[in-house]
Amino acid sequence: MLCGIDEAGRGPIAGPLVVAGVILLEDIVGLNDSKVLSEKKREKLFDEIKEKSKYHIVFSDAKLIDEKGLSFCLKNSILEIINNLKDFCDEFLMDGNTSFGIDILKHKIKADATIKEVSAASILAKVSRDRYMNKIASNYKEYEFQKHKGYGTKAHVEAIKKYGRSDEHRYSFKLKALGEENIGIQKSLF
């Protein structure tokens, strides 16, 4: 059996990185890359995936991303998924172009659109992250997280200019619009 792995939240300037691993136990109709599905369709599939699979979801908050870097958080999340699901499958496949130095992890570009287990993981990661951002939005009204989910939209950057960063923001992600340097430079294990 195959465990598909995918992430949501690698690029936002606020909120967690969420990585999900999914082993499908039953067939599910309509799976695809979460980015091409409507929010309504993702929400419907989310519950069905949870009912018809073994899965594990890992959150890495903004503070951990700042302290350890994205690569560390991704690798540790994948290792946690492997550790939790290894008794139920014999193969692990990650969407993307790297296996993060993990010997038993295979990778494939666009796997989230072509491999049903990875599509399911994509949906679990995206919906979990979106629900988290919607949940915290009322505590951070000035940033309107429910609208952009922490991505660097113009309105979000303007809110940071006005109010500064919150504890949900990634301080290590430098913003050109704020005159910060080293855009996109993050710590790496490699």
Could you explain the architecture of this structure?
The chain is α/β, with parallel strands linked by helices. The protein has a single domain, classed as Nucleotidyltransferase, domain 5, CATH 3.30.420. It has 7 helices and 5 strands; from the N terminus they run E-E-H-E-H-H-E-E-H-H-H-H. It has helices at residues 39-51, 62-68, 70-85, 111-114, 116-136, 145-148, 154-163, and strands at residues 2-8, 17-24, 53-60, 91-95, 105-108. Strands 3-2-1-4-5 form a 5-stranded mixed beta sheet, with helices on both faces. The protein is globular, with a radius of gyration of 17 Å. The two termini are 30 Å apart. Residues 183-190 have low confidence and may be disordered. It holds the Pfam family RNase_HII.
